[in-house]
Amino acid sequence: MAGAEDGKKVFAEKKCINCHSLGSEKGAMAKLGGPLDAVGSKRDAAWLKGYFTDPKSQLPNAKMPTQKLTEKQVEDLVQYMLTVK
Questions:
Q1: Which region among 20-24, 64-68, 70-74 has the lowest average model confidence (pLDDT)?
Q2: Contact call for residues 63 and 33 (beta carbons, < 8 A)
Q3: Domains in the chain, start-ordered, CATH in brackets?
């Protein structure tokens, strides 16, 4: 579970909530990025990893810019997102 906990920190540090909503939290541009509720039930680890490293590789119309993340941050963020159900 350490990866998921670290991923939650990455989510906060990178201010992902600015462009997304998660539960009752939502950022000023939440309509742009959309809700992340139940993302862990909708996407698998491979899809998430691909999206975090190159959003357009998974969704050609993705609005999310490529993020500057280390490999560990990507792995941790994937683990965290998989817990969001």
A1: 64-68
A2: yes
A3: 2-83 (1.10.760.10)
